[in-house]
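Quick one, tokens below. Sequence please?
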């Protein structure tokens, strides 16, 4: 599922690394809404043969439970790993409320839509519009000059080189691949099409 910006340019998805016991998985987050009540849906996708395939659900829809527009219940399959994943990537705050459906208990999370927008700008923008909200990225769009882009590239490189928060080399590589590539691509576009 390719993602394009407003100019029709293919964007690289921001990759998150999930570390199961036997290795790691490079995943992307997709933000959508459930058809029932337009509640927040967050899915995880993995690249398979050049395509992004469904890896699993982070959230589950419990239509009879009260939630705010940024809240959702976490799917009970591997829920401890999912809660750790949410904490690690600072995707939201785990709330004390739980819900029971059938034989399962579900934890509630208040997601940070601005943080999720870093991983899926189009999905969060569409979700916000669905709920009558303006996307924060709409305010930030600007045409950066070459000097600003080079400085941003330098700052990102410095940030990458000084990362010391327990991230694996694969996680650092994912950071480098996406963050710096986006700036380099903008620099390229400025110079080719100007």
């Amino acid at each position: 599922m390719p993602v394009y910006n407003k100019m029709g340019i293919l964007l690289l998805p921001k990759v998150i690394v999930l570390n199961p016991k036997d290795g790691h998985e490079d995943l992307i987050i997709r933000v959508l809404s459930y058809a029932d009540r337009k509640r927040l849906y967050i899915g995880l996708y993995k690249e398979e043969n050049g395509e992004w395939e469904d890896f699993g659900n982070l959230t589950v829809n419990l239509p009879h439970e009260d939630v705010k527009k940024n809240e959702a219940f976490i799917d009970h399959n591997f829920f401890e790993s999912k809660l750790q994943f949410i904490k690690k990537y600072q995707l939201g705050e785990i709330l004390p409320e739980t819900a029971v459906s059938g034989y399962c208990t579900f934890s509630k999370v208040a997601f940070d839509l601005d943080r999720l927008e870093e991983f899926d700008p189009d999905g969060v923008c569409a979700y916000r519009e669905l709920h009558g909200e303006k996307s924060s990225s709409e305010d930030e769009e600007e045409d950066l000059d070459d000097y600003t882009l080079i400085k941003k590239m330098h700052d990102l490189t410095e940030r990458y080189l000084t990362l010391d928060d327990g991230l694996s080399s694969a996680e650092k590589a994912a950071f480098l691949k996406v963050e710096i590539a986006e700036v380099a691509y903008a620099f390229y576009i400025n110079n080719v099409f100007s």
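Residues 1-12 have pLDDT under 50 and may be disordered. The chain is about 35% helix and 30% strand.
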